[in-house]
């Protein structure tokens, strides 16, 4: 490897997006390392429910999400496997206050370039009868350009496109340590034997495992890993193999969201006390043990809200781990503590396309940035204590709809 080589650690949707955008800009000296086998996605990407909502209270997140939607549409149109369906989003109002907020959100969306409108309950039910509770809905905010993604198919599409342009993906190659000399990155120790792979630019995109590798190199990442429940119905025969055409649906007041996944429906809830998790190098998957008692009444209340789940008990349950930051904005850019180490962490599928483009342009110095780099800088919480970072990040969990 040479000084021109850029190493990316992690081949989930974020790392794949970084490699994709680097090669799109003409830089084909990119190597992506991942501990997994090619067909397996044990990290947060493989468990992500694939809700792609663009409108956010935070302008930077909207910009990143809008760019991601444009990229995902192009990939899905060009690829052999569907990865993104632009089916729209319904944010269902079950209170008058939420309905009034929906009208304000239309104006907010207009200012950010996201088209939205308020529809009545009957239209909302007609658009998603299996997901919108006709008895509780008072109306909904409708965002036609939002959509649903298959995160695994999306990641494979990004990888394939990057490989066609020269990126190299090395699977079954765990990174054991970042190699640092005099506060400068010189490469990584990778593979079962810890072989030194030299590079003066390394991008850390390992999701929940990011803080583990970073800490060993003296870099603190201000992010907290948290558990999150997601449920599925059994396969529904009436869905057959029809394309996904049902909007994604959110219930902001109840912190519940739901969508169609092929022949079944899925549902998640944030209406429970946050459950932080501290990852270790031995943690092999972002999926951890599901215990109903951990989530209090949240699951029963969520399933009672969504028609598709009112008809039958959930068929499958998973408890996945994802990452929060104190301001809910990803960590994207150079690490202040180690020259040559770049961070692309705490990023959802919703923003991964935009984040990949942002950091690729930063790495290559093109100046074509989506967002002010200072707003994403990994060191923006340098003055905060670990306790303050943790408490603030976890405090956003139940109110996550205020941002996303």
- Strand ordering within the main sheet: 6-7-5-15-16-17-14-19-18
Q: Quick one: how many beta strands?
A: 21
List low-confidence stretches: none
The name of the CATH topology of the largest domain is: FAD/NAD(P)-binding domain
Q: Report the β-strand fraction as a percent range.
A: 15-25%
Task: Please summarize the sheet with the most strands.
Answer: 9 strands, mixed
How many structural domains in the coordinates?
2
CATH superfamily of the largest domain: FAD/NAD(P)-binding domain
Averaging pLDDT over every residue, what do you get?
A: 94
Find the structural class using helix and strand composition. alpha+beta
Shape: globular
Q: How far is the first residue's CA from the last residue's CA?
A: 40 Å
Give Rg in angstroms.
21 Å
Q: Describe it for me?
A:
This protein folds into two domains: 6-46 and 152-222 and 327-385 and 397-402, FAD/NAD(P)-binding domain (3-Layer(bba) Sandwich), CATH 3.50.50.60; 87-145 and 224-324, D-Amino Acid Oxidase, Chain A, domain 2, CATH 3.30.9. Helix 1 runs parallel beside helix 6, helix 1 (13-24) crosses helix 10 and helix 3 crosses helix 10 (349-364). The protein has helices spanning 13-24, 44-47, 59-78, 96-112, 121-127, 151-164, 210-216, 298-305, 307-310, 349-364, 373-376, 386-395; strands spanning 6-9, 30-33, 51-52, 84-85, 89-93, 117-120, 139-143, 147-149, 168-170, 175-181, 184-190, 195-198, 201-204, 224-232, 248-251, 256-261, 264-269, 287-288, 316-324, 331-334, 341-345. The model has no long low-confidence stretch (mean pLDDT 94). It is built from twelve helices and 21 strands. The chain is α+β, with helices and mostly antiparallel strands. The strands form four sheets. A nine-stranded mixed β-sheet has the order 6-7-5-15-16-17-14-19-18, sandwiched between helices. Strand 20 (331-334) and strand 21 form a beta hairpin. The chain is globular and about 65 Å long.
């Amino acid at each position: 490897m040479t000084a021109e080589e850029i190493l990316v650690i992690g081949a989930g949707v974020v790392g794949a997006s970084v490699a994709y955008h680097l090669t799109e800009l003409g830089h084909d000296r990119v190597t992506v390392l991942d501990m997994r086998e090619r067909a397996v996605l044990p990290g947060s990407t493989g468990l992500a429910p694939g809700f792609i909502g663009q409108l956010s209270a935070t302008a930077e997140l909207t910009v990143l999400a809008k760019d991601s939607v444009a990229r995902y549409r192009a990939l899905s149109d060009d690829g052999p496997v569907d990865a993104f369906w632009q089916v729209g989003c319904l944010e269902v109002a079950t209170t008058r206050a939420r309905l009034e907020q929906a009208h304000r959100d239309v104006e907010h969306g207009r200012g950010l370039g996201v088209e939205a409108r308020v529809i009545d309950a009957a239209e909302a039910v007609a658009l998603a009868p299996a997901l919108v509770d006709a008895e509780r809905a008072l109306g909904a905010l409708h965002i036609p350009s939002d959509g649903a993604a298959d995160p695994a198919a999306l990641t494979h599409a990004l990888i394939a496109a990057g490989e066609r342009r020269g990126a190299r993906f090395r699977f079954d190659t765990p990174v054991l340590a970042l190699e640092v000399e005099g506060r400068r990155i010189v490469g990584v120790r990778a593979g079962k034997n810890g072989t030194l792979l030299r590079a003066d630019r390394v991008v850390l995109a390992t999701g929940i495992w990011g803080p583990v590798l970073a800490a060993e190199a003296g870099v603190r990442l201000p992010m907290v890993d948290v558990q999150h429940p997601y449920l599925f119905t059994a396969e529904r025969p009436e869905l057959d193999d029809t394309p996904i055409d049902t909007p994604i649906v959110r219930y902001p007041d109840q912190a519940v969201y739901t969508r169609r996944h092929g022949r079944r429906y899925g549902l998640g809830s944030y209406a429970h006390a946050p459950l932080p998790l501290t990852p270790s190098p031995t943690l092999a998957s972002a999926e951890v043990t599901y215990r109903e008692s951990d989530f209090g009444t949240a699951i029963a209340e969520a399933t009672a809200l969504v028609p598709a789940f009112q008809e039958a008990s959930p068929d499958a349950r998973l408890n996945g781990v994802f990452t929060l930051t104190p301001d809910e904005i990803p960590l994207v850019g150079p690490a202040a503590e180690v020259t040559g180490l770049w961070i692309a962490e705490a990023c959802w599928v919703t923003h991964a396309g935009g984040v990949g483009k942002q950091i690729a342009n930063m790495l290559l110095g093109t100046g074509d940035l989506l967002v002010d780099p200072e707003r994403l800088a990994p060191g923006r919480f340098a003055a905060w204590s670990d306790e303050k970072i943790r408490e603030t990040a976890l405090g956003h969990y139940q109110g996550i709809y205020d941002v996303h």
